[in-house]
Specification:
six-stranded antiparallel β-sheet
């Protein structure tokens, strides 16, 4: 692993006002320290590296770096509003870009005199970021681990480190090109580079067992690396609060066990093991099918002998890949062989999950951000449109959202009671999952996106006629009231857990300021450093996530979108339809 120049990482006393050089000291050739920010220097991503290009490329991407003054500073002409009058400096050392390993840079920049330091302060936070080398693709995708929006949000985004603790942090970035690079990461070296009072790790890769392409890395390699880093005292903070919990979430290993827990709301499910299929495919599929059928009967969702309609999904798979449906054992037999890649001896898919297919009308998502100040979760409800997608053999959840008014009209057919019942059930299930994550790690998750499938059974015309006949026998005084009550209760609602998602999931049109702030705050939960004002003992209040972008079922004008965003920013939904924002309190705060 590349080890940056140790002189640039020497531990020195924290900065004081006296550590700022005077104007007369800023002569050509003099050397000081300035704060380097990789994402702000240029469109390239250059890290401070010692020039040795053995893989993986690693180095300081944010932090204090020694600089040399290129021109003697003219104090008489200095105007803070004109960067042409600032001090022009050159960052010393070798800077390398992961897309141009054969080139070297020494970035030049104009800085304010007050931003220079005589000595390097010890930062409050040191962050190790392991990411894919090709940063140029998917640069603005909020949900894509390859994109800059997700990679740099906790650092440079709204609510991130530069806003909360400007120049009081450092980032060491490791750009990887595959499994070999990850295996070369030395946790001892990593721990030596992180000088901050608080240390943590973030990973922006896609652990997988079957997919190939940019960002996909074998999951066993990724999690062995994360476990070694945690053992070296560098805890994981993104995309989950621990490597163990992250593995359960992206591997979907929780599905079969939780399908037996009535508090979890998971449809009947069973795991089909690849090893069993390779030793006796037909018998293994028949056993799994029989277990799933019996589970459906036990749950009162079908009769013995009925053909099973189910969903088949693989763990460690992303963006809707490796998800399909089946109807009956013959179709399961055909599709499971393909998903398990049994025709390939190099296949690494360990298992797939078979789950009873529910008749969902909409996907309700609860997006939760943990606020350490209030010890509560800020929770936003989003309704996602379910539609038939091209190249899919069944309906999938799209990226489009309903407003609450649209959901009431298109999904619940104007039945406010059914909509309220769905949200109540989702809140109860969400409480269970937040508590489950807390028990898995010993602390509250900074972020969670909980996806629920809403099943609604509306009465038939015959049912309505029977209710009308019954209402005629009631007294005239109570007839109207009972009719309204019947209208709100005539639909039967059932909410099921679909997915428990890690931090990198889409925010469904919400701004990322609350996610950035929640993850940053979690980076200070490792130890209590004793420094007055540090975020470990005095956390910042969590900002309210705003409705930033709407991909809606029905078009609305710009004024309506602006109204929704303003309401969410103010933390209220009163009088504004479809904002979908709710700050949790009481039973929804995830406390035990």
């Amino acid at each position: 692993v590349v080890v940056p120049d140790s002189a640039m990482f020497a531990v020195v006393p924290a900065a004081r006002e006296s550590s700022v050089p005077g104007f007369s000291d800023l002569v050509q050739g003099s050397r000081w320290y300035a704060f380097y920010r990789m994402n702000q220097i240029s469109r390239w991503r250059q890290v401070l590296n010692d020039g040795c290009l053995q893989a993986p490329l690693a180095g300081l991407s944010d932090g204090w770096v020694q600089v040399e003054v290129l021109n003697t500073f003219n104090a008489a002409e200095y105007d803070e509003s004109r960067h042409q009058t600032w001090v022009k400096v050159k960052f010393l050392g070798t800077f390398v870009d992961p897309l141009s390993l054969d080139q070297r840079w020494s970035p030049e920049l104009s800085v304010k005199p007050c931003d220079l330091r005589i000595s390097v302060p010890r930062p409050a936070l040191s962050l190790l970021n392991v990411r894919w080398f090709n940063y140029y693709e998917q640069r603005n995708a909020q949900w894509n681990c390859l994109g800059e929006a997700l990679n740099s949000g906790v650092i440079d985004g709204v609510g991130g480190a530069w806003e909360a603790i400007p120049s009081d942090y450092e980032v060491v970035t490791i750009f990887v090109r595959g499994a070999d690079d990850i295996q070369r990461i030395n946790p001892v070296w990593a721990a030596q580079q992180l000088r901050g009072r608080h240390r943590c790790c973030t990973v922006h890769l896609w652990p997988t067992q079957s997919n190939t392409g940019d960002g996909y890395v074998p999951e066993d390699v990724v999690f062995r690396c994360l476990e070694r880093l945690e053992q070296a005292g560098i805890p994981l903070r993104h995309p989950s609060h621990s490597s163990m919990l992250y593995r359960q979430l992206c591997g979907k290993t929780w599905i079969p066990a939780m399908s037996r827990n009535p508090l979890a709301g998971v449809p009947p499910s069973v795991r089909l093991m690849s090893g069993d299929c390779r030793s006796g495919y037909g018998a293994a599929v028949a056993r799994a099918y029989r277990v799933l059928s019996d589970s459906i009967v036990d749950a009162g969702m079908g009769n013995a002998g009925d053909p099973v309609e189910g969903v088949m999904k693989a763990g460690f798979s992303w963006m809707g890949q490796d998800v399909t449906c089946f109807a009956g054992q013959q179709q399961l037999d055909e599709k499971a062989r393909k998903m398990l890649k049994l025709d390939s001896l190099d296949a690494t898919v360990q298992c797939i999950y078979l789950q009873h297919k529910v008749n969902k009308l909409v996907e309700l998502r609860r997006i939760c951000f943990y606020d350490r100040v209030s010890d509560q979760y800020q929770i936003h409800t989003r309704y996602m449109v379910v539609e038939q997608r091209r190249n899919w053999d069944f309906e999938m959840t799209s990226a489009k959202t309903y407003t609450e008014a649209e959901a009431l009209e298109h999904v619940f057919k104007g039945n406010t009671g059914a909509k309220a019942d769905a949200e109540r059930q989702a809140a109860e299930l969400g409480q269970h999952w937040l508590q489950w994550m807390q028990r898995e790690t010993g602390s509250k998750a900074a972020f969670a996106r909980l996806d629920f499938l809403v099943e609604v059974d509306f009465p038939t015309d015959e049912d309505k006629k029977a209710k009308d006949e019954e209402a005629k026998d009631e007294e005239a005084k109570d007839e109207e009231a009972k009719g309204e009550e019947a209208k709100d209760k005539e639909a039967t609602v059932k909410v099921w857990t679909c997915e428990v998602t890690e931090i990198g999931g889409s925010l469904c049109g919400l701004s990322d300021n609350a996610r950035n702030a929640a993850v940053l705050s979690s980076c200070f939960t490792d130890v209590t450093c004793g420094t007055v004002g540090c975020l470990c003992t005095t956390p910042r209040p969590l900002p309210v996530a705003a409705v930033e972008e709407y991909w809606t079922h029905a078009p609305r004008d710009a004024g309506a979108n602006a109204e929704l965003s303003q309401a969410a920013a103010e933390g209220t939904t009163e009088g504004v339809e479809g904002s979908g924002a709710a700050v949790a309190s009481g039973a929804e705060n995830g406390s035990l």
